[in-house]
Amino acid sequence: MEWLSLEQALAQGFQVRGDPPQYLELPAELDRLASQIPTPAHFEQIGIAPSPSYQWFARIGERAIIVEREKPAINPEGRVFVYTNYLPKQNELGDWTSLLDLAELPSSIYVTRPRYILSRTLDPEHVLFRPDEMGNNLPVYNAASRHDAEGLLAFLKQDSFNELCFIGPPSLIRDPSG
Length: 178
What we know:
alpha+beta, 2 domains, 5 helices, 10 strands, about 30% strand
């Protein structure tokens, strides 16, 4: 993993590609995060997420990464947003497999506990869900196939935190309006 300062990122023409790029929301211990990254954060008054944020830039092989955390007052949940490009291998293996590369992120970012993984599958038959404390089934990932969903579930089950995650139909997603 190669961390880049803002100046290095600009000099190298650093870009996270995609329309949109892949976006993941991951839980993190924010008080440890900055000390585990060897480059200073870039403060952006209007980050990729529409709020003030701190951003770090990195490369893992072919993968360009922006790690973004909101200002502390905005982010009581302890989360980061990771923006990255889709790689050709994800076409075969599934969009969730970006987590395999992201395992190189600092230990304060819980890659094995994703809250959301953007998938290019817009009309899924299978969705991976995480139940919350309120009894809601939160969609984590729209799978391209049952096999894709089972691959992610097997990866997540390596961490006991994910023991309640399950695969279900998109109809389990509740409409917040009613």
